[in-house]
Every structure is written in structure tokens, then in C-alpha cells.
């Protein structure tokens, strides 16, 4: 498998870019993200990898304590990047955390993606998490392709499902294929582009790729195969779609206003290949990226990329911190020395890795769209740009406004060093934001989070990775604002019920108990600037 991933002959930058597809899958837990991922890998020929994706999910649920927490909550917290070949394409699949409390992490991952696949359970339609994650995609404005899964089980009416996507997500739908029946009477899909029917056969539960039998939808033999009821229903549906349905518009999809919809059943392998063949055709190639010097096209011949994720202790044997880089332009080579504009110091990229479900391998070269992991010598932070030649800075990765606050106390004073180190590392990963009370006698940090589960993760990781026991006291604040004014004015503000804290950059941050008190300050002290975290990005 390693062989197939390694480029064997020199190719031009343009060719490599044209065959890159970098995307993420978003879905509500249980809609079938893992199954679909597994099947995509299977069709890509990465059979071992396919097995390990499921194994990874199962292992998470069985062995480690960290994963036990996920199991208890039925959520997926950690993210990975999978790379595999498919029909000559080079696929980078970014795994996003499923839970809304980690929407900031999801956003960062989506910064590295060029498109997203939304998986929907055909019996359930748009679920809470689908919607939340979709909103995160919408902020990025990336194209979304939809896979309506589990057609082998009883489902909702497909027209209703499309209607729901349009109404709830305000996203125009264009079904690219159409299901014939569902559950026990599921007979296959009608491909609207080729006007052919792909018949569903109940195989051996998806252990191998299902061979497709193709017939024209108007073929009278189809009447025999489908039976009168399904045949008539299909003719009716086709007519309705042709008359009333919207036309596929590539530009509208590219702008995130329209989604092509595919029906299938990941578990039984049905419709997965049809979907993925269309996906590689429709999904965007690596796009130009915004930077302070203007748009940087992927074909720009010097290397550039940005760090969108940092994760430490991925492998307990290595205990290192890995910075994930999305390559934006040019060619990446192992051992290259790059500029690091934030610190102004050059860095040699000695140990670049690709990550698999279970392990890692060294990367010799990478192209725009690729995601590589660099062992972080402590210099990289989320949002950092690395580049050669021209100095540039990609647009910053915005922070989400925290809505939950808690004081964290270290229980064991002998482990103060580990406590600080762990917390700093988790902050560098973007797992949490850390604030301090500048004047107070107490030096316990205040954690600021977008979702409550982030607190649990921090406590859990401090314990398992740094052997530090902590106590968390949830604080009654709900809004944080950076306060900009001269020192004297800041002193004279009515702090009373509002907690005065500072971030690592030394900026004053006010924690308000309610929106009302924020507005009160705003009205009463018009010269004091109250800035919402992440507001510059409209988040
Ligand atoms: P997730 O990653 O989105 O959380 O979902 P996952 O793929 O783990 O799928 C959730 C459950 O739905 C699994 O069953 C999986 O087998 C099932 N599933 C996925 N796709 C289909 C499909 O097309 N048809 C049917 N009938 N089921 C599907 P499970 O019993 O929870 O887990 P397992 O024992 O199969 O691993």
C-alpha cells in the first residue's frame, strides 16, 4: 500500500495539483461516516487501511481510557488525515470531530479542505449535528456533496429529504441519481446523467465491491426486473425530477449554494463507487488561498503552506507534538528549509510524516492539497504560515467566541510543572483558551471553551498524558470581550460582577455573566472598545 502512495516518476506541478482532492466528511454520529470512509478506501484499493479505520473506531471504544470517554458519550473527538489513491487521483481525507462542542476544531480542519461530503441517514434526514457542522462548512463557503445513506433500510421519502435540505440548510439540491424503493424493496438507483439504472444486489454485506448491472431506464426489460409498481414509480419520479428539479450548476456548487445529492448504502457498498466517481469529477482541485500578499495559486512555484492543527502525544511511544500542514503552493520536499514568518527564523523540515489509522510513514515530497505532519519542535502554532522565497502570511485561522468558563485547580502542588506544561500544550493545540486573573492572589487559570466537553477533554488529557489530577469549578459567565482602553480607564471600570482576566498576550479580557451586562458597559463607556473573540472573522 505504501508503494501506491509514493510517486515513482517526476511529474509536473500542474499534473499533481489536478489529481489532488482534499475533503472532509461531516455527519451526525451514526449516519455512516466511518462506513463510507472504509468503503472509499476499499474502492481506492487501500484494503488494509479500510480495515484499520473500523478497527480504529472499535479500538477507541475498547482499549484506552481516553477513548472510553468517547464511547460513553458516543462521540468522536480525535481527528486524523487519511491519504489514498483512487483511479489515478490522490485523495486527502480529513476526519473531523463529530461533536458540536468541537466545532472550532472542525472549522480549523475545514480550513485545510477544498470540499466536504455531507452524509445523511435516509431514515432521519438532517440531524442536529449535521446542521451544526454544515453551518461550519458554510462559513468557509466550500462546495458540499451529499450522500444519502442507508437506502437498504426503510427510509423517508426522498423528495421530503431534499425538501428538508433546502428548507433547513438553505441549500439548493440537485439529485444526481434517484433511489428505486427503499429498505426491503430497495432495487437500486437511476443515474440521471447517463439515464441508466444500477441494480442493487444484496451481496456479502459489503466485504467486496458489488458488480453493477446497468440497463437503460426506458428499457422494457426493466419493467420485468423491477416489477410494475417500482417501474411506474420510477418513471413518475424521473418525469417529476426532469420537469421540476433544478439543473446542476457547477458554479453554484463551487460557491457552496448548491449540493449534488447521491443515494446509496455504504454498508452494502451500493452507490459508493458511483458517488466517488462523481466526487472526483465534481469536487474542487486545490484552490488558491488568501494571504496578505493577495491570492496564492497552487501553481505558484515556491512552496507555501499553513498549520491548521497541532496534536501532541498522538503516539504514546513518541510523546511528540505534531503540526499538520496543508500544502498550498509549490512542491514540498523532505529536509527543505522554510521561512517561518511569525518568528522570522528559518526552520528545517526534517521529519515530515503521513499518518494512517495506525501508524506513520516518512514523506519525501508533497503537493498542493496534501496534508503532512511535522514533528513540532515547539516553534509552530495554529495558523502559522511556512514558505520559501517570498515571505507571506495566509489569512489567520479565527478563534470561536468562548461561551463556557471554568477555573482549573491543580490538586498536587508537586506536579505544578507538569500542570503548566500540559495546559500550555493543550492551549497550543487549540483544545482550550487559557486566561488568568492578573491582580488576584489566585493564579489558577481560567479555561474558556466553545463547548463544555472541551473541559472534560482537558482534565482527562492532563490526567492521562501528564499525570495531573485537577478540579474544575464552572464559573457563571457566558461572554468574553477583549477590553481596549488606556490602563487608567480599565482600572476604573465597574468590575464588580464582571471578572477581569488577561490572555497570554496580556490583553485585558472581561467575562460577563450576561449579554445584558455587556450591553450596559457598551452604552455606559462608549470610548472603551469591547471586542468579541473571533469577531474579525465574522464568527
Ligand atoms: P459514524 O461513523 O457516522 O458514527 O457511523 P458508522 O459508519 O459507524 O455507522 C453507524 C452504524 O450504521 C453502524 O452500525 C453501521 O454498520 C451502520 N451503517 C452504516 N451504513 C449503513 C448502511 O448503508 N446501511 C445499514 N443498514 N447500516 C449502515 P452499528 O451496528 O452501530 O455498528 P457495527 O456493529 O456495524 O460496527
Give the termini distance in whole angstroms.
41 Å
In quaternary terms, these chains amount to single chain
Radius of gyration: 25 Å
Gross morphology is: globular
Low-confidence stretches: 1-8, 59-67, 69-79
Strand line-up of the largest beta sheet: 2-3-1-4-5-11-6
Helix content: 25-40%
Ions and ligands: guanosine-5',3'-tetraphosphate
The helix-and-strand class reads: alpha+beta
How much β-strand is present in the residues? 25-35%
The largest β sheet comes out as: 7 strands, mixed
Number of strands: 31
Count up the helices. 16
Report mean pLDDT, rounded to a whole number. 84
Kindly list the characteristics that best describe this protein:
alpha+beta; 6-stranded antiparallel β-sheet; globular; binds guanosine-5',3'-tetraphosphate; 31 strands; disordered N terminus; 16 helices
Report what the structure shows.
With 539 residues, the protein is of the alpha+beta class. 30% of the residues lie in helices and 27% in strands. The strands form eight sheets. The chain has a seven-stranded mixed beta sheet, with helices on both faces. Strands 20-19-22-15-14-23 form a six-stranded antiparallel beta sheet. A four-stranded antiparallel beta sheet has the order 7-8-9-10, with helices on one face. Helix 4 (47-62) crosses helix 5 (65-73). The chain starts with a helix and ends in a 7-residue tail after the last strand. The relative contact order is 0.11. The model is unreliable at 1-8, 59-67 and 69-79 (pLDDT under 50). Residues 27, 29-35, 149-150, 152-153, 265-267 line the site of guanosine-5',3'-tetraphosphate.
